Amino acid sequence: MQDKLALAIIGEFSPSFPPHPKTEEAVKHVTAALGIGVEATWISTADLAEGADLKLARFDAIWIAPGSPYKTMQGALNAIRYAREVGKPALGTCGGCQHMVIEYARNVLGFRDAQHAEYDPYASNLFVTPLSCSLVGQTMQVSIAADSRVAGIYGATTTHEQYYCNFGINPTYQEQLDRGGFRIVGRDADGEARALELPDHPFFVATLFVPQLTSTFDRPHPIIVAFLKAARTEAGRQRPAIASVAGR
What we know:
It is a single chain. By secondary structure, the protein is of the alpha/beta class. It has one domain: Rossmann fold, CATH 3.40.50.880. It contains 8 helices and 12 strands. Strands 2-1-3-4-12-11-10-7-8 form a 9-stranded mixed sheet, with helices on both faces. A 3-stranded mixed sheet has the order 5-6-9, covered by helices on one side. It is globular.
């Protein structure tokens, strides 16, 4: 029997919040397609306020789930920073994307007071602000940079994706994020950020849209497939049982 990938899903699981059960379903879609096992464990942000590196060390990949505000922002940021700094494959969708931006702004760009309007709407440096209109339930086109990892994943430079959010990346700071290394590779018709990536990381991708909402067994979402493939590759460097199925 092959070893399973250990996936940490960061967030406060709620079966009544559609993106959460859809996250679990999407993992099943991809594991069936890749022919490997994945043991997915939900971890509350409250459990990561301290010692996140030790608690997450056993996991092969980290998914920052939708559903903010989290119990503690710091717990989410600690998980993201750990994944970013140690090269652990990480995916952030919807609220997860927003918190990946906050973490990068604080710990890489030097905006120590970078904030999310959902937690503190009057903060000086709001990197995440309310959208002009809610995107909950909307499907919209995303234009993807042709030379990006994300374009390679899709095999295309446009896609249509579904959203479940009321907050987005503050356009005021988009250029600083992009120039600072957290590259904006997906944009809407108005040029606003919809997907970001760290090019030199094994896999560090943030999407404001929610790919798990449209994933199916027949068509597992390519972003999630690529995420778990990256996790398998990284795990395979140390775990021969997983490496043995790397060609699938």
